[in-house]
């Protein structure tokens, strides 16, 4: 029965630690801002995963709550610092951030961009299906975002006269 529950398990410490880490996360997010857990760049995602790992190791191993909270605070301060520096120094932004790239321009699949992004046509088609695209005539653009997500911009119906605003594609590269 010890594999299900052992009386030596630190159950109460884990519950209290969960509460304390929750309070730390709420406080740090209020201080640093909601962008703390946004997924705008690849490193944002990596930091979010790292914070989850820290929380896990703090609650399930011998790492103290204070040590875990300090590690989380350190990562959140780093993300805040880098996002501030990126706004002020465009060369740093270009160095750190990936720029979105167009994968489809209307009904045209941009094979060179797919190759550059290491995305297969079958993966692109799967994303079109996820977006409920029934016909290539519905597609206005498909963009590989800086986060790694794929955005499908499409008309409600193939014969619709909806027009994609050029502002929506601002900052999106047409070529690798």
Automatic annotation (TrEMBL):
Q: Which residues form a coiled coil?
A: none
Q: Which residues cross the membrane?
A: none
> What's the protein's topology in the membrane?
Multi-pass membrane protein
Chief localization: membrane
Gene3D superfamilies to which the protein is assigned, alphabetical: bsu07140 like domains
- Keyword Oxidoreductase attached: no
Q: Which GO terms describe its cellular component?
A: plasma membrane
Q: Where in the cell is it found?
A: Cell membrane
- InterPro entries registered for this protein in UniProt: DUF421, UPF0702_alpha/beta_dom_sf
UniProt KW keywords:
Cell membrane, Membrane, Transmembrane, Transmembrane helix
- Where does the YetF C-terminal domain lie? 88-158
| Superkingdom, natural source | Bacteria
Q: Which family does it belong to?
A: Belongs to the UPF0702 family.
Protein's recorded name? YetF C-terminal domain-containing protein
Q: Which organism is it from?
A: Maribacter cobaltidurans
């Amino acid at each position: 029965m010890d594999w299900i529950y052992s009386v030596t398990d630190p159950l109460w410490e884990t519950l209290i630690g969960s509460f304390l880490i929750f309070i730390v996360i709420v406080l740090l997010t209020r201080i640093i801002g909601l962008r703390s857990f946004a997924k705008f760049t690849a490193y944002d995602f990596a930091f979010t995963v790292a914070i989850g790992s820290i929380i896990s190791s703090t609650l399930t191993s011998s790492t103290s709550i204070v040590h875990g909270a300090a590690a989380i605070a350190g990562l959140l301060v780093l993300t805040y610092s880098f996002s501030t520096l990126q706004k002020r120094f465009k060369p740093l932004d270009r160095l750190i951030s990936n720029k979105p790239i167009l994968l489809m321009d209307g009904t045209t699949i941009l094979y060179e961009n797919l190759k550059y992004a290491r995305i297969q046509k079958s993966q692109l088609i799967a994303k079109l299906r996820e977006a409920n695209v029934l016909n290539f005539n519905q597609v206005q653009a498909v963009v590989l975002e800086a986060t790694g997500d794929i955005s499908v911009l499409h008309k409600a119906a193939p014969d619709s006269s909806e027009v994609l605003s050029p502002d929506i594609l601002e900052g999106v590269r047409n070529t690798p």
